[in-house]
Amino acid sequence: MADLPLEEAGEAGLALAPAEPRTVEETGLPESLLSALALKHLYQGGLDSGLQIAQEMRLPWGGVMDGVFDFLAQEQYVELRGGKGFGRASVTFTLTTKGREAARDAMNRSAYVGPAPVPLSQYSAQVVAQSTVPQRIDRQSLLLSTSHLVFDQSLLDDLGPALSSARALFLFGEPGNGKTALAEALAQSLGGAVVVPHAIEVDGQVIVVHDRAWHIPVEEPEGAYDRRWVACRRPFLVVGGELTLEMLDLAHDESTNVYEAPCHLKANGGMLLVDDFGRQKVAAREMLNRWIIPLEKRVDLLSLRTGRKFEVPMEEIVLFSTNLDPQDLVDEAFLRRIKYKVHLGDPDEASFREIFRRLCESQGIAHDPRMVDWLLEHVYRRERRPLRACHPRDLLQISSDIAAFQGVEPDLTPSLLDQACRLYFAAQPVELPAATPFVGPDAPTPPPGRR
């Protein structure tokens, strides 16, 4: 995904970007780990200059990587093959026999080859620091971020305090009314940007954190800063029915001996949406049992395969979206700990009409209010069918598919909409008068035929 302008993401989070380390000590990593990582880069890439490897490891040459390569040369792990006239940074290094053996041994211990990780202590401090950057969340900012959606605006008076608290909340209501779209818009309202490390180091083990699927880059801050971190928009992660208890712990790859951070670690500084909560394979009670203390304490406890346990910050908003009544999911003790519960109900007729109009406009379909009148009368009121925010989108898509199959423009008519409704709702067709080209609010009412 292309970089987003820094102005769009906001500068507040990036103001706290870590300073560029000037020495090995300031990286927070042992020289042995940096040396092993440099050897693995050489092992995979063949001949490389010291500057190229420094860039791959996202560390400065002067003061950090020059000392690492001095050590590798002294230990006869590398040989110098000349340079291009720009000092030792441009010298080409190659592995010796001893160096290749050391590189293979390092690969066997951990096959991670990439940017140098940041130590757990630096990661924790940075996450807590950037979570405390003031984010102004008011009704105007929520209106702006949700302007593309149609819903009861009074909900913002409930959602605003929940977001400002940065605490977990339930967003519940009937399916198809836009809970996921609303959650995404709320995540955008958080504004600002954060820095996310490529990886973190715990007891010599590497845990990959940066995820291109969820961490959307912004323009990098000006000046020198620690390039082991990536400037990103505040993350918005979505997990659904596939979520298991195992996914809330570190994922360990046996073949590489590299760990991957769980979803809530990747979401630090932003929002984690647990979609379709209650539909997971694991019981909702067990899921909340796993999370209830981290949600309260804002700290989670993770474990390496060695048995080493360590704390990580959990500085994010966790939003549980569900079609089920929260009272039916968990008992009062759990609900008390998740203080905010917001109901997103069905749209009223005015909202339904506005959704239909906007979608017609965006899809290039001529909008005729009389067709919505027909739908409301014959498909919803007469059958007492509840309105759903997703219905206009789905019915228009099916109508377009029918028209494309017939080789005609998707001009909405009662017969076209009736066929779309039959396919969508699995219902009987309305008996339309054969000679009536248009059925609207002023036309004779066709007899009921849908059951």
Summarize the topology.
Elements: H1 6-9, H2 24-27, H3 31-45, E1 48-49, H4 50-56, H5 61-74, E2 78-80, E3 92-95, H6 97-109, E4 118-119, H7 120-131, H8 139-145, H9 156-165, E5 169-172, H10 179-189, E6 193-197, E7 199-202, E8 205-208, E9 229-233, E10 236-239, E11 251-253, E12 258-260, H11 263-266, E13 271-274, H12 284-297, E14 299-303, E15 309-313, E16 317-322, H13 326-329, H14 332-337, E17 340-343, H15 349-363, H16 369-381, H17 391-406, H18 414-425
Parallel strand pairs: 4-7, 5-16, 5-17, 8-12, 10-13, 13-16
Antiparallel strand pairs: 1-3, 2-3, 6-9, 7-8, 11-12, 14-15
Helix pairs in contact: 3-5, 3-6, 4-5, 8-10, 16-18, 17-18
Poorly predicted spans:
1-10, 434-451
Terminus-to-terminus distance? 48 Å
Largest sheet: 5 strands, mixed
CATH architecture of the largest domain: 3-Layer(aba) Sandwich
Mean pLDDT: 87
The main sheet orders its strands as 4-7-8-12-11
The CATH superfamily of the largest domain is identified as P-loop containing nucleotide triphosphate hydrolases
- Number of domain units: 3
Query: Tally the helices: what do you get?
Result: 18
Radius of gyration: 28 Å
The counted number of beta strands is 17
Q: Name the helicity range.
A: 40-55%
Assign the CATH topology of the largest domain. Answer: Rossmann fold
CATH top level assignment of the largest domain: Alpha Beta
Helix-strand category:
alpha/beta
Form type: elongated
Strand portion: 5-15%
Explain this structure.
There is one protein chain. The chain is α/β, with parallel strands linked by helices and about 450 residues long. The chain has three domains: about 30-115, Winged helix-like DNA-binding domain superfamily/Winged helix DNA-binding domain (Arc Repressor Mutant, subunit A, Orthogonal Bundle), CATH 1.10.10; about 120-345, Rossmann fold, CATH 3.40.50; about 350-425, no CATH class. The chain has 18 helices and 17 strands. The strands form five sheets. It has a five-stranded mixed sheet. The protein has a five-stranded parallel sheet with strand order 10-13-16-5-17. It has a three-stranded antiparallel sheet with strand order 1-3-2. A hairpin with a 4-residue loop joins strand 11 and strand 12 (about 260). Helix 3 (about 30-45) crosses helix 5 (about 60-75), helix 16 (about 370-380) crosses helix 18 and helix 17 crosses helix 18 (about 415-425). The protein starts with 5 loop residues before the first helix and ends in a 26-residue tail after the last helix.
